[in-house]
Queue: 3 jobs
Job 1
Amino acid sequence: MMKKALITGATGFIGVNLIRRLLLEGWHVHIIIRPNTSMAILGNICEQVTVFTHDGSALNMLNIMTEVKPDIVFHLASLFLAAHQTKDIKPLITNNLLLGTQLLDAMAKNDVQYIVNTGTSWQHFNNDNYTPVNLYAATKNAFEMILRFYTSSTSIKAITLKLFDTYGANDPRAKLFSLLQKASKNVQPLAMSPGEQLIDIVYIDDVVDAFVTAADRLLKREANSFEEFSVTSGRPIKLKDLVEIYIQITGEILPLIWGARTYRDREVMVPWNTGQSLPGWHAKVTFENGIKLIQRIEDGGL
Ligand SMILES: NC(=O)c1ccc[n+]([C@@H]2O[C@H](COP(=O)([O-])OP(=O)(O)OC[C@H]3O[C@@H](n4cnc5c(N)ncnc54)[C@H](OP(=O)(O)O)[C@@H]3O)[C@@H](O)[C@H]2O)c1
């Protein structure tokens, strides 16, 4: 029997890579998008998934869940903002709390038991149990409290994977590597912080592997009702050194000016390092190999 997955955040960088992997493994994939979501990133896998457009209401979510009745839900949808402005409060709450709550309620009403949720290492500023770095991370914490309510009052079982930085080929997000790739094509110098912060960065295939491992743990009934794990590279590295390795491997000439911008307010200098690891999973792709893989994929060699 084909296993059925329902995925939110399917058009995000991690979501699209997760879909590819699930399709390869023979899953029947259903995705929830918004009315204005562009499906361009999905390319030719569009035809292999069943798409539901959520109108934002709890009733519509309930109808989607009733129709799909998935074996498992992967909840990746989120609005990420490093710093928020007043106008961002509503979208942060709507995307990071309301959507997930509607999802959980619809699961409970349909007896859909398993969910892999996505958290962030930024929920643990200075390694504290409850000190989010910013409002985005605070909404992730708040959602975990809601998740705990559902896992304690219904048959829902959840694993939250707390992610660090992620990277991979064809990443449309304005993350470190896309910025470096852009900088190498520009004559315009890129203003950098002093670069002493440690970065914990995990290659996309390893991240996807963590989602699949977590799903397997839930489906094999090995999980408790509420679990959370850290998806760490296990090898944090100073930003300056990371960029140095990138330059050595790619041979790109980067017009970077270190120290031209100050650290962010509440910059994470040492990433969370006290999280529990996901049983059966560890990051396999070293940073050096990850960069080489990206080059090969983007050059069409893979
Ligand atoms: N560095 C990292 O990658 C990192 C680190 C820590 C945690 N995470 C977490 O990992 C997850 C995936 O990250 P990502 O980088 O792949 O995300 P992304 O590229 O920023 O994409 C976000 C996705 O969420 C969807 N979404 C947002 N609000 C929605 C809503 N109200 N209804 C339906 N869909 C909605 C977006 O849909 P549209 O296309 O419609 O916008 C998009 O598919 C997120 O939960 C993020 O917080 C990522």
Note: The pocket of NAP is lined by residues 8-15, 32-34, 37, 54, 76-80, 95, 99, 118, 120, 163, 165-166, 173 (CB under 6 Å).
Job 2
Amino acid sequence: MSKICVVGTGYVGLVTGTCFADLGNQVTCLDVDHERIDKLNHGEMPIYEPGLEQLVSQNVRSGRLFFATDYQEALKEAEYAFIAVGTPSGNDGEADLQYVRAAAEAIADTVDWPIIVINKSTVPVGTGDWVAEVIQQRRGDHPLEFSVVSNPEFLREGSAISDFMNPDRVVLGSLQKEAAQKVANLYQPLRCTIMITDLRTAEMIKYASNAFLATRISFINEIANMCEALGADVNEVARGMGYDKRIGPSFLDAGLGWGGSCFPKDVKALEHMAVLHGTQPQLLQAVMEINRNQRRRAVMKLRKALGSLNDKTIGVLGLAFKPNTDDIRESPALEIIHLLQNEGAHIKAYDPQAMENAARVVQKVELCDNPYQVAENADGLLLATHWNEFKQLDFARIYQIMKHPILLDGRNLWDAEQLKSLGFKYMGVGRAVNGTFHEEE
Ligand SMILES: NC(=O)c1ccc[n+]([C@@H]2O[C@H](COP(=O)([O-])OP(=O)(O)OC[C@H]3O[C@@H](n4cnc5c(N)ncnc54)[C@H](O)[C@@H]3O)[C@@H](O)[C@H]2O)c1
């Protein structure tokens, strides 16, 4: 059993801390957000993540998982301090490291015993060295015995616990191999591939992985747009490509583009790093531009179908950036809502989990209790997030209650033929054969 402190109780920190507790360690999760910690101490989850509430409560009851706002309390006798705070985009797209700095300084101020500091936040290449400098500077004449290990996180919101417990790989980077080996021991119960490398390489692996996945999505979206122009079906194209073992089927779903708390900021941060160091990230720039266009194309399709968007009511199904999360950061739905509103459209919307978060940021959006309220009197209906509960709606009823039976299936979730036979004008993404753009032009 090891003593671990996890700094930051967001999607990554809370899942990491809870899973390490479940593996038999004694873990204290620390956050500067008192409301978050109060909630957790009362058994309430500050975020929605399937299975998390139960796992937290089991480990709290077993006396292995604690929550605190005080660094003294949280770091008491800790051998490992995981930094899992946010690294949002700064003004120029660079990663904003103010929270990482604050966490590193607070660790330096608190600890007086040997400790391993582990960067789990996604941080620019070179940040591990910088964290070591921050700690050394903070300690001044009272040096601390510590090591810095980079341990980028690859979990996905919505399946975070299972991703943590069954990782494809764990990446550890450090100049101090002994420290990296100790962190590897924490992951030993998972019986997974553990790759130990140097600090900067580990940091780059995270950015390169996210940028590659974003590239695959932008690639298939570009192909989808060609499919619309040329009369092919992108779903089938992706299926045909995915059978090729060199390609594989994942991250080839055409749609409204990638969003969320990671891809947009990480691709931007990688581009920023590249430019800053004199290389030309042309591919990344195109990947981002294709993604922006994908939102604009959705608006264009609705505008085209309705003549104009001014004074039209558009219903939006889904606000979270993907299903099974309440996270709305950089959600395509919200960006499209904004673009639609700019053209004078009224918006009604519903999401199974993200309504509370959305209510804080959207303006002039009628938030509804269910998909049917959204569809009522709508001139067009946009499927923005492919939640399971949107898979099998009562479309005959929706046809009756919409003002104009226009559907834009932004996730290619629905059966185009069935909907057309009910009388809908159906538009998907890259599904020309099934009757989108190509046929209508
Ligand atoms: N969300 C994901 O799916 C995901 C996946 C892989 C990697 N990451 C990376 O992990 C990091 C965390 O992401 P997240 O989505 O969990 O963030 P988040 O915004 O959900 O949570 C961050 C938490 O850190 C807390 N915090 C900020 N400063 C602090 C400080 N000085 N001391 C203690 N707590 C502090 C905040 O109050 C907040 O609760 C980011 O770098 C992100 O890029 C995220």
Note: The CA atoms of residues 191 and 331 lie 35 Å apart.
Job 3
Amino acid sequence: MKVKVIEENCAGEGFCVEEAPGVFEIVDGVAIVKVDEVPADMEDAVRSACEGCPTAAIEIED
Ligand code: SF4
């Protein structure tokens, strides 16, 4: 699984970091993805972050 953040849509409040801190990080007020490939044990957390992102800024690419 790959995931990306649409930076212009990100509100930067960090919900995704709380859900999947190994995958997302806030840099200069915007979430970034720290990994090229989401580890298998983080996939559920990334899906949860995607579903819970208040601005729908997270896109999952299988
Ligand atoms: S949950 Fe969405 S809006 Fe919030 S920091 Fe993460 S990508 Fe940005």
Note: DSSP finds two helices and four strands in the chain.
